[in-house]
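## retry 2 of 3
previous attempt timed out at serialization; input unchanged, resubmitting
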Amino acid sequence: MSKLISGLALSLAGTLVASSALAVTAAGLAPANAAGEERSALTLTNFGYRADVYAVKLVTDNVEAFNLKDAHAQLRCTRAIGQSAEEKSILSVPDNPLINIAASTSRTDTYKDGATHGVRGVNTIADIRIGGQIGDVKTPMLVIEGLTTTANAFHTPQGFGHEETFDFASIRLELLEGTPLQGTPLEALVEPLNQVTDTVFEGTNDAANAVFQVLQSATAPIQIPGLGSIALGKIRGTATKKKATSEAMALEILVEAGGSRQLVEIGSANARIGAPTPAGVFRAGGTALDLQALQSLLHFGNVQHKSIPCEGTLGRTMTYRIPSAGVLLGLVARVSGVTYAHRGSQHAKRDLAKGFSSVRIAHTSVPSVGLEINDIFSRVKMRGKENKPVKSTISSSIGSITFRGQPVAVPAVGQTVELPGGAGLIQRQLVKDSRYGAKSIGLRVQLFENAVVLDLGLADGHIYPR
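## retry succeeded, writing output
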Protein backbone atom coordinates (compact mmCIF):
# COMPACT_ATOMS: atom_id res chain seq x y z
CA MET A 1 0.00 0.00 0.00
CA SER A 2 1.18 3.53 -0.70
CA LYS A 3 0.31 6.35 1.63
CA LEU A 4 -0.30 10.08 1.53
CA ILE A 5 -0.17 11.76 4.92
CA SER A 6 -0.93 15.41 5.49
CA GLY A 7 0.77 15.51 8.82
CA LEU A 8 0.55 15.55 12.54
CA ALA A 9 0.14 18.79 14.47
CA LEU A 10 0.53 19.31 18.20
CA SER A 11 -0.15 22.45 20.21
CA LEU A 12 2.91 22.80 22.43
CA ALA A 13 2.46 26.05 24.33
CA GLY A 14 0.89 27.50 21.21
CA THR A 15 3.54 26.13 18.82
CA LEU A 16 2.35 24.07 15.86
CA VAL A 17 4.61 21.16 14.92
CA ALA A 18 3.97 19.32 11.64
CA SER A 19 5.16 15.88 10.59
CA SER A 20 4.57 13.78 7.47
CA ALA A 21 5.66 10.45 8.94
CA LEU A 22 3.26 7.52 8.94
CA ALA A 23 4.11 6.24 12.44
CA VAL A 24 4.93 8.94 14.96
CA THR A 25 7.29 7.50 17.55
CA ALA A 26 8.15 10.58 19.60
CA ALA A 27 7.39 10.14 23.30
CA GLY A 28 3.70 10.46 24.05
CA LEU A 29 2.46 10.78 20.45
CA ALA A 30 -0.15 8.47 18.92
CA PRO A 31 0.31 6.61 15.62
CA ALA A 32 -2.63 6.13 13.29
CA ASN A 33 -2.97 2.49 14.26
CA ALA A 34 -1.93 2.35 17.91
CA ALA A 35 -1.27 -1.14 19.24
CA GLY A 36 -2.50 -2.40 22.56
CA GLU A 37 -5.24 0.19 22.90
CA GLU A 38 -7.15 0.17 26.16
CA ARG A 39 -10.85 -0.05 25.37
CA SER A 40 -12.54 0.13 28.74
CA ALA A 41 -16.28 0.15 28.12
CA LEU A 42 -17.90 3.48 28.96
CA THR A 43 -14.92 4.92 30.81
CA LEU A 44 -15.76 8.62 31.01
CA THR A 45 -13.13 11.28 30.33
CA ASN A 46 -13.02 15.07 30.35
CA PHE A 47 -12.86 15.10 26.53
CA GLY A 48 -15.64 15.27 23.96
CA TYR A 49 -15.21 12.99 20.94
CA ARG A 50 -17.05 13.07 17.60
CA ALA A 51 -16.49 11.34 14.25
CA ASP A 52 -18.28 11.03 10.93
CA VAL A 53 -17.25 8.64 8.14
CA TYR A 54 -18.84 7.66 4.82
CA ALA A 55 -17.90 6.02 1.55
CA VAL A 56 -19.81 8.16 -0.94
CA LYS A 57 -22.04 11.22 -0.86
CA LEU A 58 -23.96 12.97 -3.63
CA VAL A 59 -24.36 16.75 -3.20
CA THR A 60 -26.33 19.07 -5.47
CA ASP A 61 -26.98 22.76 -4.79
CA ASN A 62 -25.86 22.55 -1.13
CA VAL A 63 -28.32 19.71 -0.40
CA GLU A 64 -27.41 16.08 0.27
CA ALA A 65 -29.24 13.06 -1.10
CA PHE A 66 -29.52 11.09 2.15
CA ASN A 67 -30.59 7.84 0.52
CA LEU A 68 -27.37 7.93 -1.54
CA LYS A 69 -25.02 8.54 1.42
CA ASP A 70 -23.34 5.17 1.59
CA ALA A 71 -21.72 3.26 4.49
CA HIS A 72 -22.28 6.19 6.83
CA ALA A 73 -20.89 5.59 10.34
CA GLN A 74 -21.55 8.46 12.71
CA LEU A 75 -20.28 8.69 16.28
CA ARG A 76 -22.19 11.48 17.97
CA CYS A 77 -20.60 13.49 20.77
CA THR A 78 -19.52 11.32 23.68
CA ARG A 79 -17.17 11.47 26.69
CA ALA A 80 -16.68 7.71 26.78
CA ILE A 81 -13.73 5.58 25.73
CA GLY A 82 -14.58 2.36 23.90
CA GLN A 83 -17.45 3.80 21.86
CA SER A 84 -17.66 2.82 18.19
CA ALA A 85 -19.93 2.84 15.16
CA GLU A 86 -19.59 0.72 12.01
CA GLU A 87 -21.52 0.55 8.75
CA LYS A 88 -20.95 -1.66 5.71
CA SER A 89 -22.20 -1.57 2.14
CA ILE A 90 -21.87 -4.19 -0.57
CA LEU A 91 -22.63 -1.90 -3.49
CA SER A 92 -23.38 1.77 -4.06
CA VAL A 93 -24.62 3.24 -7.33
CA PRO A 94 -25.67 6.88 -6.74
CA ASP A 95 -28.51 6.99 -9.28
CA ASN A 96 -26.03 7.07 -12.17
CA PRO A 97 -24.81 4.01 -14.13
CA LEU A 98 -21.44 5.71 -14.59
CA ILE A 99 -20.75 5.80 -10.84
CA ASN A 100 -20.08 2.55 -8.98
CA ILE A 101 -18.65 2.24 -5.47
CA ALA A 102 -18.38 -1.35 -4.25
CA ALA A 103 -17.77 -3.14 -0.94
CA SER A 104 -17.17 -0.29 1.51
CA THR A 105 -16.81 -0.19 5.30
CA SER A 106 -16.83 2.82 7.63
CA ARG A 107 -15.85 2.72 11.30
CA THR A 108 -15.34 5.20 14.12
CA ASP A 109 -13.72 4.55 17.54
CA THR A 110 -12.78 6.40 20.70
CA TYR A 111 -9.61 5.02 22.26
CA LYS A 112 -7.04 5.35 25.02
CA ASP A 113 -3.41 4.32 24.58
CA GLY A 114 -1.36 5.03 27.69
CA ALA A 115 -1.77 8.76 28.37
CA THR A 116 -3.18 9.41 24.89
CA HIS A 117 -6.93 9.84 24.32
CA GLY A 118 -8.31 10.00 20.81
CA VAL A 119 -11.02 9.39 18.25
CA ARG A 120 -10.44 7.82 14.85
CA GLY A 121 -12.56 7.42 11.71
CA VAL A 122 -11.66 5.00 8.90
CA ASN A 123 -13.33 4.29 5.55
CA THR A 124 -12.23 1.52 3.21
CA ILE A 125 -13.49 0.98 -0.36
CA ALA A 126 -12.52 -2.10 -2.32
CA ASP A 127 -13.28 -0.73 -5.78
CA ILE A 128 -14.28 2.61 -7.37
CA ARG A 129 -15.30 2.77 -11.03
CA ILE A 130 -16.31 6.06 -12.64
CA GLY A 131 -17.30 6.06 -16.32
CA GLY A 132 -17.69 3.32 -18.92
CA GLN A 133 -20.67 2.86 -21.24
CA ILE A 134 -24.02 4.62 -21.07
CA GLY A 135 -26.34 3.70 -23.92
CA ASP A 136 -24.38 4.02 -27.14
CA VAL A 137 -21.95 6.51 -25.62
CA LYS A 138 -18.56 5.43 -24.32
CA THR A 139 -16.86 7.60 -21.71
CA PRO A 140 -13.42 7.53 -20.12
CA MET A 141 -13.10 5.24 -17.08
CA LEU A 142 -11.31 5.86 -13.80
CA VAL A 143 -10.70 2.81 -11.57
CA ILE A 144 -9.23 3.02 -8.07
CA GLU A 145 -8.78 -0.10 -5.94
CA GLY A 146 -8.11 -0.49 -2.24
CA LEU A 147 -8.79 3.06 -1.04
CA THR A 148 -8.58 3.73 2.72
CA THR A 149 -9.17 7.16 4.28
CA THR A 150 -8.28 7.80 7.94
CA ALA A 151 -8.78 10.78 10.25
CA ASN A 152 -7.31 10.72 13.78
CA ALA A 153 -7.67 13.47 16.43
CA PHE A 154 -6.08 12.98 19.83
CA HIS A 155 -4.64 14.48 23.02
CA THR A 156 -1.32 13.60 24.67
CA PRO A 157 0.38 15.11 27.74
CA GLN A 158 2.06 17.49 25.27
CA GLY A 159 -1.21 18.77 23.81
CA PHE A 160 -3.75 18.14 21.05
CA GLY A 161 -2.77 16.61 17.71
CA HIS A 162 -4.15 15.25 14.45
CA GLU A 163 -3.19 12.90 11.61
CA GLU A 164 -4.82 12.28 8.22
CA THR A 165 -3.89 9.55 5.73
CA PHE A 166 -4.89 8.00 2.41
CA ASP A 167 -3.93 4.43 1.50
CA PHE A 168 -4.60 3.02 -1.97
CA ALA A 169 -3.47 0.04 -4.00
CA SER A 170 -3.86 1.02 -7.65
CA ILE A 171 -5.21 3.59 -10.11
CA ARG A 172 -6.18 3.02 -13.74
CA LEU A 173 -7.35 5.64 -16.25
CA GLU A 174 -8.77 4.77 -19.66
CA LEU A 175 -9.11 7.82 -21.93
CA LEU A 176 -11.00 8.26 -25.18
CA GLU A 177 -9.12 8.07 -28.48
CA GLY A 178 -7.66 11.43 -29.44
CA THR A 179 -7.77 12.94 -25.93
CA PRO A 180 -5.20 15.77 -25.87
CA LEU A 181 -2.52 15.40 -23.20
CA GLN A 182 0.48 17.54 -24.07
CA GLY A 183 0.56 20.77 -22.09
CA THR A 184 -2.63 19.99 -20.14
CA PRO A 185 -3.10 19.30 -16.40
CA LEU A 186 -4.18 15.80 -17.42
CA GLU A 187 -0.64 15.16 -18.67
CA ALA A 188 0.72 15.77 -15.16
CA LEU A 189 -1.89 13.41 -13.72
CA VAL A 190 -0.94 10.43 -15.91
CA GLU A 191 2.79 11.13 -15.98
CA PRO A 192 3.61 8.96 -12.90
CA LEU A 193 1.63 6.02 -14.35
CA ASN A 194 2.67 3.28 -16.74
CA GLN A 195 1.29 3.77 -20.26
CA VAL A 196 -0.22 0.40 -21.22
CA THR A 197 -1.68 1.57 -24.57
CA ASP A 198 -2.18 4.93 -26.25
CA THR A 199 -5.20 5.55 -24.02
CA VAL A 200 -4.70 3.39 -20.91
CA PHE A 201 -2.56 4.43 -17.93
CA GLU A 202 -2.18 2.53 -14.67
CA GLY A 203 0.00 2.29 -11.60
CA THR A 204 0.24 0.87 -8.10
CA ASN A 205 1.73 1.87 -4.76
CA ASP A 206 4.30 4.67 -5.27
CA ALA A 207 2.87 5.58 -8.69
CA ALA A 208 -0.62 5.82 -7.23
CA ASN A 209 0.75 7.95 -4.41
CA ALA A 210 2.34 10.28 -6.95
CA VAL A 211 -1.04 10.76 -8.67
CA PHE A 212 -2.59 11.85 -5.39
CA GLN A 213 0.30 14.28 -4.88
CA VAL A 214 -0.48 15.78 -8.29
CA LEU A 215 -4.10 16.22 -7.21
CA GLN A 216 -2.98 17.78 -3.93
CA SER A 217 -0.83 20.38 -5.69
CA ALA A 218 -3.38 21.17 -8.43
CA THR A 219 -4.96 24.63 -8.17
CA ALA A 220 -8.20 23.49 -9.85
CA PRO A 221 -10.00 20.21 -10.63
CA ILE A 222 -8.31 18.30 -13.47
CA GLN A 223 -10.57 17.85 -16.47
CA ILE A 224 -11.02 14.39 -18.00
CA PRO A 225 -12.60 15.12 -21.40
CA GLY A 226 -15.77 13.12 -21.99
CA LEU A 227 -16.28 12.33 -18.29
CA GLY A 228 -15.95 15.36 -16.02
CA SER A 229 -13.25 16.36 -13.56
CA ILE A 230 -11.34 14.94 -10.61
CA ALA A 231 -9.89 16.70 -7.57
CA LEU A 232 -8.52 15.83 -4.16
CA GLY A 233 -11.35 16.34 -1.71
CA LYS A 234 -9.52 17.61 1.38
CA ILE A 235 -6.75 16.69 3.75
CA ARG A 236 -6.38 19.03 6.67
CA GLY A 237 -6.40 19.33 10.43
CA THR A 238 -6.02 21.85 13.21
CA ALA A 239 -4.79 21.72 16.80
CA THR A 240 -5.14 24.34 19.52
CA LYS A 241 -4.94 24.34 23.31
CA LYS A 242 -8.61 23.32 23.48
CA LYS A 243 -9.24 20.96 20.56
CA ALA A 244 -8.03 19.04 17.52
CA THR A 245 -9.83 18.27 14.27
CA SER A 246 -8.85 15.89 11.51
CA GLU A 247 -10.49 15.81 8.07
CA ALA A 248 -9.73 13.70 5.03
CA MET A 249 -11.75 13.23 1.86
CA ALA A 250 -10.05 11.25 -0.85
CA LEU A 251 -11.76 12.46 -4.02
CA GLU A 252 -14.31 14.86 -5.44
CA ILE A 253 -15.43 13.73 -8.89
CA LEU A 254 -17.77 15.82 -11.00
CA VAL A 255 -19.49 13.54 -13.52
CA GLU A 256 -20.90 15.41 -16.50
CA ALA A 257 -21.18 12.56 -19.00
CA GLY A 258 -24.53 11.05 -19.92
CA GLY A 259 -26.44 14.33 -19.67
CA SER A 260 -26.09 14.61 -15.88
CA ARG A 261 -24.01 16.81 -13.61
CA GLN A 262 -23.37 15.22 -10.23
CA LEU A 263 -20.73 15.95 -7.61
CA VAL A 264 -19.66 12.77 -5.85
CA GLU A 265 -17.58 12.86 -2.68
CA ILE A 266 -15.66 9.61 -2.13
CA GLY A 267 -13.94 8.28 0.97
CA SER A 268 -14.52 10.78 3.77
CA ALA A 269 -13.41 10.64 7.42
CA ASN A 270 -13.72 13.37 10.06
CA ALA A 271 -12.70 13.24 13.71
CA ARG A 272 -12.73 15.82 16.49
CA ILE A 273 -11.68 15.95 20.15
CA GLY A 274 -12.23 18.89 22.51
CA ALA A 275 -12.14 19.78 26.20
CA PRO A 276 -13.22 20.30 28.88
CA THR A 277 -16.56 18.51 29.31
CA PRO A 278 -17.24 18.55 33.07
CA ALA A 279 -21.06 18.48 32.75
CA GLY A 280 -21.53 16.34 29.62
CA VAL A 281 -21.40 16.80 25.85
CA PHE A 282 -23.62 18.83 23.55
CA ARG A 283 -25.48 17.08 20.77
CA ALA A 284 -27.06 20.14 19.28
CA GLY A 285 -27.26 21.98 15.99
CA GLY A 286 -29.55 22.94 13.17
CA THR A 287 -30.40 22.45 9.53
CA ALA A 288 -32.76 24.35 7.29
CA LEU A 289 -34.49 21.64 5.31
CA ASP A 290 -35.35 17.95 5.28
CA LEU A 291 -37.47 16.62 2.42
CA GLN A 292 -38.87 13.16 1.82
CA ALA A 293 -40.52 12.31 -1.49
CA LEU A 294 -42.40 9.24 -0.35
CA GLN A 295 -43.38 7.75 -3.72
CA SER A 296 -39.78 7.68 -5.02
CA LEU A 297 -38.19 7.02 -1.60
CA LEU A 298 -35.94 10.06 -2.00
CA HIS A 299 -34.61 11.84 1.07
CA PHE A 300 -32.77 15.17 0.91
CA GLY A 301 -31.46 17.52 3.56
CA ASN A 302 -28.45 18.64 5.61
CA VAL A 303 -28.17 22.15 4.17
CA GLN A 304 -24.58 22.62 5.38
CA HIS A 305 -25.71 21.45 8.83
CA LYS A 306 -24.02 23.23 11.74
CA SER A 307 -23.60 21.73 15.20
CA ILE A 308 -22.24 22.85 18.55
CA PRO A 309 -18.81 21.36 19.36
CA CYS A 310 -19.07 18.59 21.95
CA GLU A 311 -17.56 20.77 24.67
CA GLY A 312 -19.45 23.92 23.61
CA THR A 313 -18.28 27.27 22.28
CA LEU A 314 -16.78 28.72 25.49
CA GLY A 315 -19.91 30.84 25.77
CA ARG A 316 -19.47 32.53 22.39
CA THR A 317 -22.41 32.79 19.99
CA MET A 318 -21.42 31.38 16.59
CA THR A 319 -23.34 32.44 13.47
CA TYR A 320 -23.24 30.90 9.98
CA ARG A 321 -25.05 32.06 6.83
CA ILE A 322 -26.00 30.06 3.72
CA PRO A 323 -27.23 32.21 0.79
CA SER A 324 -29.44 29.54 -0.78
CA ALA A 325 -30.00 25.84 -1.35
CA GLY A 326 -32.40 23.78 -3.44
CA VAL A 327 -33.70 20.26 -3.92
CA LEU A 328 -33.31 19.05 -7.51
CA LEU A 329 -31.94 22.45 -8.61
CA GLY A 330 -34.74 24.23 -6.77
CA LEU A 331 -37.52 22.67 -8.83
CA VAL A 332 -38.94 20.82 -5.80
CA ALA A 333 -38.04 23.24 -3.00
CA ARG A 334 -35.69 26.16 -2.39
CA VAL A 335 -34.59 28.03 0.73
CA SER A 336 -32.71 31.32 0.81
CA GLY A 337 -31.26 33.54 3.49
CA VAL A 338 -30.45 30.71 5.92
CA THR A 339 -28.84 31.68 9.23
CA TYR A 340 -27.63 29.18 11.84
CA ALA A 341 -26.67 30.33 15.34
CA HIS A 342 -25.61 28.41 18.43
CA ARG A 343 -23.88 28.78 21.77
CA GLY A 344 -22.74 26.37 24.48
CA SER A 345 -20.89 26.79 27.76
CA GLN A 346 -19.66 24.50 30.55
CA HIS A 347 -19.33 25.40 34.23
CA ALA A 348 -17.14 22.92 36.09
CA LYS A 349 -17.80 24.12 39.64
CA ARG A 350 -21.57 23.85 39.15
CA ASP A 351 -21.50 20.72 36.91
CA LEU A 352 -23.64 22.77 34.53
CA ALA A 353 -23.91 22.96 30.73
CA LYS A 354 -26.21 25.32 28.87
CA GLY A 355 -26.72 26.77 25.42
CA PHE A 356 -29.02 27.14 22.44
CA SER A 357 -29.34 26.23 18.78
CA SER A 358 -31.41 28.17 16.24
CA VAL A 359 -32.28 28.24 12.54
CA ARG A 360 -33.76 31.13 10.54
CA ILE A 361 -34.90 30.92 6.89
CA ALA A 362 -35.71 34.19 5.15
CA HIS A 363 -37.69 32.61 2.30
CA THR A 364 -38.91 29.16 1.28
CA SER A 365 -40.63 28.23 -1.98
CA VAL A 366 -42.18 25.07 -3.42
CA PRO A 367 -42.60 26.09 -7.08
CA SER A 368 -44.59 23.05 -8.20
CA VAL A 369 -47.58 24.01 -6.00
CA GLY A 370 -47.06 27.77 -5.66
CA LEU A 371 -46.25 27.73 -1.95
CA GLU A 372 -44.25 30.64 -0.48
CA ILE A 373 -43.23 31.00 3.19
CA ASN A 374 -41.39 33.96 4.70
CA ASP A 375 -39.23 34.20 7.82
CA ILE A 376 -39.24 30.80 9.53
CA PHE A 377 -37.47 30.77 12.90
CA SER A 378 -36.90 27.86 15.29
CA ARG A 379 -34.83 27.67 18.48
CA VAL A 380 -34.09 25.21 21.29
CA LYS A 381 -32.51 26.38 24.55
CA MET A 382 -31.11 23.71 26.88
CA ARG A 383 -29.73 23.69 30.40
CA GLY A 384 -28.54 20.59 32.23
CA LYS A 385 -26.65 19.46 35.30
CA GLU A 386 -24.85 16.13 35.41
CA ASN A 387 -27.16 13.18 36.26
CA LYS A 388 -30.28 15.38 36.11
CA PRO A 389 -32.85 15.85 33.32
CA VAL A 390 -32.06 18.59 30.81
CA LYS A 391 -34.47 21.52 30.80
CA SER A 392 -35.48 22.68 27.31
CA THR A 393 -37.29 25.78 26.05
CA ILE A 394 -38.71 25.79 22.50
CA SER A 395 -39.63 28.86 20.48
CA SER A 396 -40.64 29.45 16.86
CA SER A 397 -42.18 32.07 14.60
CA ILE A 398 -43.47 32.30 11.03
CA GLY A 399 -43.71 35.55 9.06
CA SER A 400 -46.29 34.77 6.35
CA ILE A 401 -47.57 31.98 4.11
CA THR A 402 -49.10 32.24 0.65
CA PHE A 403 -50.48 29.46 -1.55
CA ARG A 404 -51.01 30.16 -5.25
CA GLY A 405 -51.02 33.86 -4.49
CA GLN A 406 -53.55 33.67 -1.66
CA PRO A 407 -52.63 34.27 2.01
CA VAL A 408 -52.82 31.30 4.38
CA ALA A 409 -53.29 31.71 8.12
CA VAL A 410 -50.15 31.00 10.12
CA PRO A 411 -50.96 28.13 12.52
CA ALA A 412 -50.63 28.66 16.24
CA VAL A 413 -47.89 26.80 18.11
CA GLY A 414 -48.61 23.08 17.95
CA GLN A 415 -51.55 23.54 15.57
CA THR A 416 -52.27 22.61 11.93
CA VAL A 417 -53.93 24.50 9.06
CA GLU A 418 -55.17 23.07 5.77
CA LEU A 419 -54.01 24.42 2.43
CA PRO A 420 -56.78 25.58 0.06
CA GLY A 421 -58.46 22.84 -1.97
CA GLY A 422 -57.22 20.13 0.36
CA ALA A 423 -53.75 20.33 -1.21
CA GLY A 424 -51.99 19.59 2.04
CA LEU A 425 -51.36 20.49 5.66
CA ILE A 426 -49.03 22.89 7.46
CA GLN A 427 -48.06 22.08 11.06
CA ARG A 428 -46.30 24.53 13.37
CA GLN A 429 -43.57 23.56 15.84
CA LEU A 430 -43.34 19.78 16.17
CA VAL A 431 -41.32 18.91 19.27
CA LYS A 432 -39.73 15.65 20.38
CA ASP A 433 -38.70 15.72 24.07
CA SER A 434 -36.42 13.41 26.02
CA ARG A 435 -34.53 13.38 29.31
CA TYR A 436 -31.54 14.87 27.51
CA GLY A 437 -33.19 17.76 25.65
CA ALA A 438 -35.47 18.38 22.68
CA LYS A 439 -35.65 18.61 18.91
CA SER A 440 -37.99 21.04 17.18
CA ILE A 441 -39.23 21.30 13.60
CA GLY A 442 -40.27 24.90 13.01
CA LEU A 443 -42.75 24.05 10.24
CA ARG A 444 -43.84 20.82 8.54
CA VAL A 445 -45.46 20.94 5.09
CA GLN A 446 -47.32 17.89 3.76
CA LEU A 447 -48.28 17.98 0.07
CA PHE A 448 -50.75 15.20 -0.71
CA GLU A 449 -50.65 15.11 -4.52
CA ASN A 450 -46.84 15.15 -4.60
CA ALA A 451 -46.52 12.77 -1.62
CA VAL A 452 -43.90 15.10 -0.17
CA VAL A 453 -43.12 15.87 3.48
CA LEU A 454 -41.00 19.01 3.90
CA ASP A 455 -39.59 19.88 7.33
CA LEU A 456 -38.22 23.40 7.73
CA GLY A 457 -36.18 25.00 10.50
CA LEU A 458 -34.91 21.94 12.37
CA ALA A 459 -33.25 22.88 15.68
CA ASP A 460 -31.74 20.24 17.97
CA GLY A 461 -30.67 20.81 21.57
CA HIS A 462 -29.42 17.92 23.72
CA ILE A 463 -26.81 17.46 26.46
CA TYR A 464 -25.67 13.91 27.18
CA PRO A 465 -23.75 12.74 30.25
CA ARG A 466 -21.60 10.28 28.30
